[in-house]
Amino acid sequence: MKKHNDYINKVKKTDLSKFSNKKKVELGLLDNFAYSNIEDLNDEIGRLSYSVEEWFEEEFDKAIEASRNLTDVYYNNSEGFIDSADVAGDAEILQAIESTADELGLTPQELYEDFDEHKEALRYLDYLEKKFAEQEREVRTWFP
């Protein structure tokens, strides 16, 4: 029994840390990582991966398609929209209707039922042409 007690006492006095296979890193080194944990680092890498591997290609394809469409409309006039030149005589005709109605003591609407609507349509066309010209300048600025 004495032998056993001597062995127990010897074990109690032994520094067990020298038998450990694990090596410890100074905690100060861990504080120097750019991201505090691997999950945050992987999240950020994942965001970049998505952007590089998927998002860019999708968005770039959309941008190319939009560029083509804008170029077709604003550079190549692919739509052939109506413009003031197409209805250049309408304003003169409306003016003649107004004068004739006045001479006859009538309203222009009595001679031409759509007089007001036609006049408004021409005003709206003028507005749209100006807006289109502004958009064309913008397209030419961004897609020279």
Describe the structure in your own words:
The chain is mostly helical and about 140 residues long. It is built from 6 helices and no strands. The radius of gyration is 41 Å and the shape is rod-shaped. The relative contact order is 0.06. The model has no long low-confidence stretch (mean pLDDT about 85).
Q: Characteristics of this structure?
A:
mainly alpha; 144 residues; 6 helices
Helix content: over 70%
Q: For the terminal residues, how far apart are their CA atoms?
A: 98 Å
Oligomeric assembly: single chain
Rounded radius of gyration (Å): 41 Å
Shape: rod-shaped
Largest sheet: none
Count of individual beta strands: 0
β-strand amount: under 5%
Average pLDDT metric:
86
Instruction: Quickly give the structural class.
Output: mainly alpha
In total, the number of domains comes to: 2
How do the helices and strands follow one another from N- to C-terminus? HHHHHH
Q: Total helix count? A: 6
Low-confidence stretches: none
Could you give a short description of this structure?
The chain is mostly helical and 144 residues long. Helix content is 71%, strand content 0%.
Strand and helix map with partners:
Layout: H1 2-13, H2 27-30, H3 38-74, H4 88-104, H5 108-111, H6 115-142
